[in-house]
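Figure 2 data, in text form.
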Amino acid sequence: MNVETDFFLGISEPRHLAAPVPVCIAHQRLQRTTWWVRRDRGLPPYMVDSGAFSMLDSIPDGTPRTELEEHGYWRTDPREYVTAVAEYHHWIGPPVMVGIQDWMCEDHILAKTGLDVDEHQDRTTENYLELTARWNQHFRTVGDSKFIPTLQGGTPHDYVAHIRKYLAAGVDLLAGPVGVGSLCRRQATSEIVAIIRAITAAAPGIRLHGYGVKTLGIRRVGHLLATSDSEAWSVDARHSEPLPGCVGTHKKCVSCLDYALTWRGRLIHSLRSPEPIGGQLDLFEEGIAA
């Protein structure tokens, strides 16, 4: 992965679609406005996230919540989601990837839904198949489907098992990008490394998109990832002073594009360095994702 071109900066404001770098924005954020910036006129690519790890609710520590975490189910109907993505395709420009409505497998999510990892994987696979089928049925003339299958699990073995489920459903995981979910809140980088290595060993040539992979994880397995994304800059901004040029404009740079781009520059610099630079990797070690 080339972090300069393959790292998608997570953004929460639709106006930040004008950013001169690859960006990732959640469906729910785009639904809150009728004014969008075109991304197909010389700007780098963008991707749409389903909102699985979006700031759907404001809570004290700034930790993103999910629809599953809040309600134990997806409130957004797949039909509504597909129609919305078609609108983004038309008004913003074709996204390079669109996240599906996957079912995360963290322990607290499983406790909320009352289901096990196996059932979450089945529902994730079924959602990918439904979204793709609905797109091909109603919007094929708009362009090819950009929904990407996502692997879910708790252990490396779980993720490999999910690969087999996709294959059994007739999904070619080597045909395009494949997301890896339930990574961003893992505290141990070694867990992320073990999962990514298990997946690539089981499916050589697979092009993985890492949702919210930590900096140390990218440093160790970045060569096994095709792309990655994170909105951790916003959490970093919540606990930092505003940029000098922002003093008097806002108290915190949690929605500031200048801060986001500065953070991205530090991230790229840290990954180029032979050793981690103190203070610049902590924001990923929070385990916060876009």
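Caption note: Residues 243 and 258 are 8 Å apart (CA to CA).
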